[in-house]
Amino acid sequence: MTRVALIQVDVSDSEPVNDRVSRVLSMVRAQQGKADLVVLPELWNVGAFNNEALRPYAQSRDGELVQALCATARETNVWLHGGSFVELQDNDKLSNTSLLIRPDGTVATFYRKIHLFGFDTGEAIMLVRGNDIIVESDTPVGKAGIATCYDLRFPELFRAQCANGAQSFVLCSGWPTPRINHWRVLIQARAIENQAWFIACNEVGRNGDYILGGHSMIVDPKGEIIAEAGNDEEILYADVDVNLADQWRKDFPILRDRVL
Question: Any bridge partners for residue 81, and if so which?
Fold first, then answer.
């Protein structure tokens, strides 16, 4: 059994970025001995809708924020999904990049967000999308597919991760209040159709023109909501038995009947 902690961060614009980074890292450290896996939201240092901050706060994969997250994971001795940050690539392009860190402080994997939100605005035109479908083996929640926010609307990604052995999905997000009903339905749908755990960490607060919707969730492979947060900053805990995915796939073997 794995204890998971989702830190549903308030990303309101009123808080300076450096103050938030310090505060959130302290919240992660407080999980020492309480959780095996800690998950942060999407672009939590600046907020998912703070488009003006994307380039000013962009940094490389060995930049200050990543180094601080790795040091905190090592100090706390937890697996840490560090949410995502704006990655400055060698070609000066930007991407929305999430990372999963081992308890020894080394990075297990990076994931560049494939589906960019905004249509003809925001990250859709300011960032470049990733191409790699990531399933990380040997995590506390088994083989874990990694995704970010808007990816949730595209079932093909999760089906591909499932085909690559994913027993769980870990998603960081900045999902706004007006579409929070979509969030809840889609998370359950992705869990049900892939018979996998779904671990989704959202953020709250007023960021740019949006209010973030919270409702971070942990859903089991049968689609049952095991734990769900509210609309305020909080830490959501749940126990995850990764073997349940394998057992449910055996007991109710719908995946073997897939044609397309």
Answer: 39, 100
